[in-house]
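Exercise 3.2. Students should predict the tertiary structure of the chain below and write it as structure tokens, then compare their answer with the key that follows.

Predict this chain's 3D structure.
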Amino acid sequence: MAKPRSPKLKVFRTPIGFHDAIVAAPSQKAALEAWGADSNLFAQGAAEQVEEPALVAAALERPGEVVRVPRGSKDEQIAALGREVKRSKTGGASASARAKGKGAKAVKPARPPKPSRATVVALEDQLAEATKRHAKAVGLIDDEIAALQRKRRDAAREHRREQDAIEERLASEQARYDRKFEAWKNE
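Answer key:
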């Protein structure tokens, strides 16, 4: 009589804090059930099949049961603590969620930092300064134009006075000449 054949067991691992939860199971689905996972940790990249002899041996001693195995030395765990805190702040699964065997829920990626307006503000300031300089330059030119217009009016007034005086003398001299010419003509 043949013995009932047991399915070939594979060893799977998922991280839970500073430990790995390993289980010897016939399939990924069976491993997920053993961990009590609500989502497919394999699809999320949070679980994998392992072939490390020490982990395989520990899991095969108790097939179907979840075995906790420390990850790295204490020094490695302390060093990883800083990275773990940073990762949980950036949207990764929290340590408590991983300890319960649950995968990270889809978290919206963090918004990038607000863009800096420094360049825009600097250019606005430059534009305002250039506008002030232009207005000042135009004001100086307007003052010069006004001064030149006054000078032109004064010159025109002086010319008119001089012209009037010369025309008056010319008329007087013309009249005297005409009288003398008439007298000469009649002699």
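Discussion points: Residues 10-76 form one domain. The first helix runs from residue 28 to 35.
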